[in-house]
Write a structure and sequence with these properties.
The complex is a heterodimer of chains A (281) and B (356). Chain A has 281 residues and is of the alpha/beta class. Chain A has nine helices and 15 strands. In chain A, the strands form three sheets. Chain A has a seven-stranded mixed beta sheet, with helices on both faces. A six-stranded antiparallel beta sheet of chain A has the order 4-3-6-1-2-5. The longest helix of chain A is centred in the last third of the chain and has 14 residues. The chains are: A alpha/beta (281), B alpha/beta (356).
Chain lengths: 281, 356
């Protein structure tokens, strides 16, 4: 019996400050036992429990893509006890990772379809994983048009800025980056909230188009009516939820929405599924 | 399986003999209340109590349980890595557990033993334990086991079922585990032919004494979101003080928290019972709380037991009718009444919740 509470030991390989407020850092981890990397085989959209020994665990979306080998990557917002302590940790420090957990974006169903990714703020992590996964030469041909609508409060609050710029230059992905406001005159992308940009830039709805939505509750609240207006059917709107979690394996009882556990039956649900459950997220 | 007769004169000696192979546990009185304790130095289980105040779930699932220990001392090779804590899973036997509490473990197992993940702590503790149950002759007024998928002589989850037949016990051996225990205790006298009829008579008499019921027949077919949005939750939750007594005393409540506790440079990671009655249970790091109000939390408890569980497993309700929450709730919230409201719910007919 494998103990699902036992994390794989990892070492912090690299720490990057992502945003101008320094509240988001990206951590790259390598497994102390290289065999554990194989055991940690994951898909874009899953999450893991980061285990800081002596402080506790936090559930965080996996920001690296399964096509990236030799490390796993997580972007963490500094919020509570564990994440604050983690932010003070340095390359070389040892901690743990438990996972991968939960389901993933429906890659099998989305094959041969258009994919529009709609993200806001620091919920962009598993979306980065998804984009890197889809843009992998092996995988790109499996999908039709890819659109990305990604917004943050200001240019300095965007995650993965170098990658965003690189994706902007490609012709096999349509990037629609936006900020709530920019006082930088050299800002050459969109200004406006994600729902408004979605209304203007999202591709037309159809049976061939999936929307993946991931962001803060306020963004989701105002984006959903826009997608409705554009005619996206609810089984084609894919959402990734967050709730307080401890075990990550559907046992500790706190993250449920009705009979579904966000940690184990989710975090990815279609809007059609969410319509059947209490909105306790 | 067979029925064995244990003369009460052989009771203490048999337990004594079994103690060589098993760690024995049973109800003992401490101050005013009974609880399950190790039976050491020849202590005998006290069968005079109707049931223990707290359920025996802690025997398998301790209120606080260390999973791992660790060192933060960097001069130690495996510093900051979790090490499995030492555990004792040698055989043990629980003597005198009530059928409702034994059935509760069967329900809780659905949570801890799934196709995807198995909780090793719960499972190893459960599997190393033999359950010697004691049928309930005289249930109390808050017991409603017969309508909660259980009963005073219910056998599910038991390895042996004991019935008090005056100068002797009739022991119905239900599983191989139970047979092994009987052998270890040296109890092997086959009961007389009438034993089966005696047992059935005791069962029927006990079942007839249970006069309180929960209706559950409509729960599965009622639309989830309609029940969730019912207006009676305001009424149900009004007096609740979110003390958590119901969840801690419940044999089928399984929610837990995970915490690290460090002293100096070493510490432990532990599982602790938690409760859906507490706001912190679901509080997000951002301050947002999906169950931030008392109403939402009370609704979660009853919806989980009487609807989500029913829908998820199709094994009845997540309740065995032990009545502890009914007896112990300081503001008299009664799951039987809530079950009645839920089971009788009709979305359109719900004009005034106060009247129900």
């Amino acid at each position: 019996m494998r103990n699902p509470y036992l994390p794989y030991p990892v070492r912090i390989d690299d720490v990057t400050v992502e945003t101008e407020d320094k509240n988001l850092k990206t951590f790259k981890f390598t497994f102390l036992d290289p065999e554990d990397e194989k055991r940690f085989a994951y898909k874009a959209g899953q999450f893991a429990e980061l285990s800081v020994t002596g402080k506790g665990e936090i559930p965080i979306g996996i920001a690296s893509s399964p096509t990236e080998k030799g490390f796993v990557m997580f972007t963490v917002n500094k919020v509570g006890l564990v994440s604050s302590f983690l932010h003070a940790m340095k390359p070389g420090d040892v901690m743990g990772i438990r996972g991968p957990m939960g389901n993933w974006y429906p890659w099998e169903k989305m094959e041969g379809k258009n994919v529009v990714i709609i993200g806001g703020g620091f919920a962009f992590t598993t979306l980065r994983s998804s984009i890197v996964y889809m843009l992998n030469p092996e995988n790109r041909k499996k999908f039709k048009d890819i659109h990305v609508i990604y917004g943050a409060r200001s240019p300095g609050m965007l995650l993965y800025r170098e990658e965003l710029a690189a994706w902007e230059r490609r012709d096999d992905i349509h990037m629609h980056i936006t900020v709530d406001a920019a006082n930088d005159p050299s800002w050459k992308y969109n200004v406006g909230f994600v729902p408004a940009v979605t209304e203007k830039k999202a591709p037309p709805a159809g049976n061939d188009t999936y929307a993946i939505v991931c962001g803060p509750p306020i963004m989701i609240k105002f984006t959903q009516p826009v997608l409705d207006k554009l005619g996206y059917p609810h089984d084609k709107i894919i959402m990734s939820l967050e709730n307080r979690m401890k075990c990550g394996i559907g046992m500790c009882g706190r993250c449920n929405i009705g009979k579904e556990f966000v940690c184990k039956d989710g975090p990815v649900f279609t809007l059609e599924q969410l319509n059947q459950t209490p909105r306790e997220y | 399986m067979k029925i064995i007769q244990i003369d009460k004169s052989q009771w203490a000696s048999g337990l004594n003999q079994a103690a060589a192979a098993y760690r024995l546990l049973g109800p003992l009185k401490e101050k005013e209340f009974h609880s399950f304790k190790p039976l050491v130095n020849g202590a005998l289980p006290d069968f005079s109590c109707l049931n223990t105040r707290l359920s025996p779930k802690a025997l398998v699932y301790p209120q606080s349980e260390v999973m791992f220990d660790y060192s933060l001392d960097e001069s130690i090779e495996d510093h900051h890595q979790l090490r499995e804590a030492a555990k004792d899973y040698s055989p043990r036997a629980v003597i005198g557990i009530r059928p409702c509490d034994a059935k509760a473990f069967v329900l809780v197992r659905l949570n801890f033993d799934t196709p995807d993940y198995q909780d090793p702590y719960w499972l190893r503790a459960y599997e190393s334990t033999t359950f010697i149950g004691l049928g309930c002759e005289a249930p109390c007024s808050a017991c409603f086991c017969t309508s909660a998928g259980c009963g005073p002589y219910h056998e599910e989850g038991l390895d042996v079922l004991l019935a008090d037949a005056g100068d002797h016990y009739l022991a119905k051996v239900i599983t191989d585990k139970g047979a092994a225990f009987m052998e270890a205790a040296g109890w092997k006298a086959a009961a007389a032919k009438e034993a089966e009829a005696t047992l059935a008579g005791l069962r029927q008499a006990a079942e007839a004494r249970i006069t309180s019921f929960v209706p559950t027949d409509n729960l599965r077919s009622l639309p989830n979101n309609d029940l969730y949005n019912a207006t009676f939750w305001e009424d149900v939750s009004f007096s609740c003080i979110n003390c958590g007594t119901c969840t801690y005393s419940c044999p089928t409540c399984w929610c837990f928290d995970i915490q690290d506790e460090t002293r100096g440079r070493s510490g432990v990671r532990m599982k602790n019972w938690d409760s859906c009655m507490y706001p912190l249970f679901t509080l997000h790091g951002t301050g947002h709380n999906p169950r931030g109000t008392k109403l939402q939390r009370v609704r979660q408890r009853f919806m989980h037991k009487l609807k989500y569980f029913v829908d998820k497993y199709d094994r009845g309700i997540q309740c065995v009718g032990c009545g502890r929450c009914v007896r112990l709730c300081p503001v008299n919230i009664d799951i039987r009444r809530v079950a009645m409201m839920m089971n009788g719910f009709a979305a359109s007919g719900e004009a005034c919740a106060i009247e129900s």
